[in-house]
């Protein structure tokens, strides 16, 4: 689809020599979001047999996807571990890289104390956090949306 695509890296106001881009989708290209969606369209179905999905009413949800963001949902620690393992297999198969600096675990509980669990992706630990911001909404481990209400109040 893309022929003769080259890139350069700017470092300290200097450009590197041109490098040929052999993989990936051009950032900012109008086709990029749609190509990515087609590419990962089957991802939610892969989790069906392995995760213990969250339920809203009678709807079971094992992941949420927007652009290149994926949120895995499970009601059990073992279910989430299996989801992470399936995601790892999927990413290896399709040569997709996951940014572990942006990858976090939030365990929702009503208690004050944060529950810590050990989760791994590609052998690397995934950080447990109390709060996580997704699409501008802060999700708190307590399940409270008071932080969201406060942020919205501050914005006016």
Describe the structure.
With 156 residues, the chain is α+β, with helices and mostly antiparallel strands. It folds into two domains: 1-29, no CATH class; 42-154, no CATH class. The protein is 27% helix and 26% strand. The chain is built from four helices and 13 strands. The chain has helices at 32-40, 43-47, 77-94, 146-155; strands spanning 6-7, 10-11, 14-15, 19-20, 54-56, 59-61, 63-66, 69-72, 104-105, 119-121, 124-128, 131-134, 137-140. The strands form six sheets. It has a three-stranded mixed β-sheet. It has a two-stranded antiparallel sheet with strand order 1-4. Strands 2-3 form a two-stranded antiparallel sheet. The longest helix is centred in the middle third of the chain and has 18 residues, at 77-94.
Which percent band covers the strand fraction?
A: 25-35%
Total domains, how many? 2
The average pLDDT score comes to 83
CA radius of gyration is: 19 Å
Q: State the major sheet.
A: 3 strands, mixed
Q: Helix coverage percent of residues? A: 25-40%
Termini separation comes to 45 Å
Oligomer: single chain
Tell me how many strands there are.
13
Structural class: alpha+beta
Q: Detail the poorly predicted runs.
A: none
**Number of DSSP helical runs:** 4
Strand order, largest beta sheet? 9-11-10
**Judging from the principal axes of the Cα atoms, what is the shape?**
globular
Note the run of SSEs as H and E: EEEEHHEEEEHEEEEEH
């Amino acid at each position: 689809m893309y022929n003769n695509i080259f890139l350069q890296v700017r470092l300290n106001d200097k450009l590197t020599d041109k490098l040929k881009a052999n993989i990936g989708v051009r950032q900012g290209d109008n086709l990029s979001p749609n190509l990515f969606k087609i590419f990962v369209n089957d991802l939610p179905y892969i989790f069906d047999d392995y995760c213990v999905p969250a339920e809203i009413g009678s709807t079971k949800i094992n992941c949420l996807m927007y652009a290149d963001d994926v949120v895995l949902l499970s009601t059990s620690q073992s279910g989430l571990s299996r989801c992470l393992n399936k995601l790892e297999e999927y990413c290896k198969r399709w040569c997709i890289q996951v940014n572990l600096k942006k990858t976090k675990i939030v365990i929702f509980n009503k208690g004050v104390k944060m529950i810590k669990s050990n989760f791994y992706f590609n052998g690397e630990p995934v950080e447990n956090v109390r709060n996580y911001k997704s699409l501008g909404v802060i999700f708190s481990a307590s399940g409270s949306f008071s932080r969201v209400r406060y942020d919205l109040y501050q914005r006016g």
